[in-house]
Design goal:
27% helix; single chain; five-stranded mixed β-sheet; alpha+beta
């Protein structure tokens, strides 16, 4: 090979770099789907949330309004739900103004992420102010088809079902479905739940990035 030593080294290194980049891209495509990381931390890096719990999901399209609906999970991340949903949902609901749980499950079916907060938070004015501040960041004029702001913070009380695990006062939920498969016979649907002792804007933002609007039974795959 002719030329300077520097040029000879570049001629060897650059093809190797392209091979590495190509392999990394192939590996990402092979592992496409919901993220598998299991915990979230706050801005300081400390863990505040538990593992992301994954449960085989069902109930897409199952609209029930003439009888009560009960859920096995507290809170639900999928299941039978109301025919109604909050098309232009507010980002924050208190106990007095929150829609019924089956209505919010319908929002999950349409790709929304929900941050549920329990009665411990409800009784803590500072914690409530923190939740409202996080939620306000997702307020827009058009929430129906905005993948970046399809977010709801809502209370979960003892009247709704069982409490959260000990030490956990928050729960993030998402109803996942492969966005490339729009059939009703999907076997890949998952209800995703992550319980947290505390939440921050960073924790919620990471969840929103990991589980976007398009990854849902009736999400909007054209919105990237």
């Amino acid at each position: 090979m002719t030329g300077s030593p520097t040029r000879r080294r570049l001629a060897i290194v650059m093809p190797l770099a392209l091979v590495v980049i190509g392999f990394a891209g192939w590996s990402w495509r092979e592992n496409a789907g919901p993220p598998t990381d299991t915990s979230a931390g706050d801005e300081s890096g400390g863990p505040v949330c538990g593992d992301v719990l994954r449960e085989p999901a069902g109930g897409a399209g199952a609209h029930i309004d003439d009888e009560p609906i009960s859920y096995s999970s507290a809170p639900p991340s999928f299941g039978d739900h109301s025919n109604r949903w909050e098309v232009r949902a507010l980002p924050f609901y208190d106990v007095e103004h929150r829609p019924d749980v089956p209505v919010l499950v319908h929002n999950l079916e349409h790709g929304y992420n929900i941050l549920w907060y329990d009665e411990t938070v409800i009784a803590d004015a500072e914690a409530m102010a923190g939740v409202r501040e996080i939620a306000d960041a997702y307020a827009t004029l058009d929430r129906e088809r905005d993948p970046a702001t399809a977010f709801i913070a809502a209370p979960w009380t003892s009247e709704d079902g069982a409490g959260f695990p000990d030490g956990m006062n928050y729960a993030l939920t998402h109803w996942y479905a492969d966005p490339t498969d729009r059939t009703r016979a999907r076997a890949d649907e998952l209800g995703l739940t992550q319980y947290c002792a505390e939440v921050s804007a960073a924790v919620v933002r990471q969840w929103m990035d990991d589980y976007p609007l398009r990854d849902a039974p009736e999400g909007f795959p054209d919105l990237m």
